[in-house]
Structure prediction request, 147 residues.
Amino acid sequence: MIELNTFKKLLEENEECLPLLTLDEFFNGNTEEDSIAPNQWGFGRPTLSEIWDMLQKIELMPNIAWVRVALHDDTEIGENNGAEELALAGDTIVICTTILPTELEKLVNCEWLCSDGVITIKVSELNNYSCVPPIPENFNCLEIVWD
Prediction:
C-alpha cells in the first residue's frame, strides 16, 4: 500500500488532487476489505487479494496499457492512537485498453466481482486525478464500477 508520506507528497504536489494508484499502491499490504466496494463486501464480493490477483493478470494482457485504482473522496488521513494513518477508499478500477466494455465485463467477470459493470469514460474525467499515465493512441479508458 502506498506509504503515508508518499501519499501526502502527491497531494501537496498536485493541489490536493487524489492520485490514481497502481495496483501495488492500493492492494499490496492492504487488509481493509471494505476499502473498495464496501457495500458488496460480505455479500459475495471476492477478497482484496483475489481482486488484486485477477487485475494483475488483466494488466499483463497485450491490449491493456495500464490499470489503476481511482480513489473515492472518502480517502482520508486520520489518527489512530495519536499516529497519522492513511485510510484508502477505492472508488473504481480504471483500465486503459482497446478492449470493448462488454468484452472486459466478461474478462473480469463482473458478476464474480459483484460489480455493476464496465463503462467507458471520457479522458477529461481523469483530469480530476493526479498520476494519470499516458493514454496511447486508439486506447480508451474503461471503469469497473460498483453502486
About this structure: The first helix runs from residue 4 to 13. The chain has one domain: 4-145. Residues 4-145 form one domain.
